[in-house]
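User: Structure please.
Assistant: Input sequence and predicted structure:
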Amino acid sequence: MLNFLSHYEEYFGPLRLLRAITFRTLMGAGTATLLGFLIGPWLIAQLRVLKFGQHYDDDRTGDLAARFDKKNTPTMGGLLIFFSVFLSTFLWASPNVWVVVAMFVYAALTGVGFRDDYLKVVRKNRAGISSGEKILWQTVITVIALAALLWHPTSAEKIREFWVPFYKEPAFVFAGGLGVVALLVLIFLWIVGFSNAINLTDGLDGLAIGCTITVALVYGIMAYVAGRVDTSHYLLISYVPGTGELAVICGALVGAGMAFLWYNSHPAEVFMGDTGSLAIGGLIGVMAFMVQQPLTLVIVGGVFVMEAVSVIIQVGVFKLTRRRFGEGRRFFLMAPIHHHFQKRGWPETKVVLRFWILSLMCALAGLGTLKLR
């Protein structure tokens, strides 16, 4: 669509704006927001008719908090985000290897997440797809994505470089066969890790998508900076030709996220489900490698990391104490950590708002690493 319109810029001057990534990013965000608001009511109604709802339950007890039952709230709301992002990217992004691979990962993981949700809510299989099958699909998707990036001359060299925050040169380069295997493992861990982290965060109304918006906003800026010779050289970060177009995807994700938040805010009318969390985590994870900022994602996505680490600590302490004392003990009142604060009596909306503030602080800290070299 973008290439078609650009052919006519000599006849209609304002079409020259289409050359500007900033303009197309804003248009992508606006288009995704509009599509989200248009698709949202219809999609939610269809999910309710089909009874695509899953039992989500907030087990708060005591005088400070009453039980809030989220049973039968439609899930699979990640479809709203996916269609908004995909159509906006098609309209406003100039296709290159970075854009195509990113959207392939997003679309493929959306399919895997949809199958998982479908088995849970329709087939009444609470476990969904097995962990082995999920890892298999994630591995296949990662292999295809990395193979495409290594095959294409535009991305073949850059994707092998590994950059770390606060350092102005690549920490090392993944050379040879062993290097490719190591790179594959790292990308896989980022895709799986952040998919699971977003899934764990998606336990309160608006929490996961609000944090996703801040992360997408920061990586849109990073993609824009990495795709420009002048700013990348000034900030002493890697110049990666073509990655500026990923800013359009990030802008679309911000716009779609805001539309989804409209329906996901407390009390939620729809949940994103694995259809959303699995795919968004994979998309953000692979884009972090594309713009040479993989470790920065640990800072920018600090809330997601905190949620995942809280579960690891809780499980680890429980198993260790059960082995040592014969009875498992808990480090937190409940994990993931947002439920810990609920158990302490915080209202759901207070937990969400305070975690959004933490997410914004993490985002600003991540942006600060661009200048500290």
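The first strand starts at residue 53 and ends at 54.
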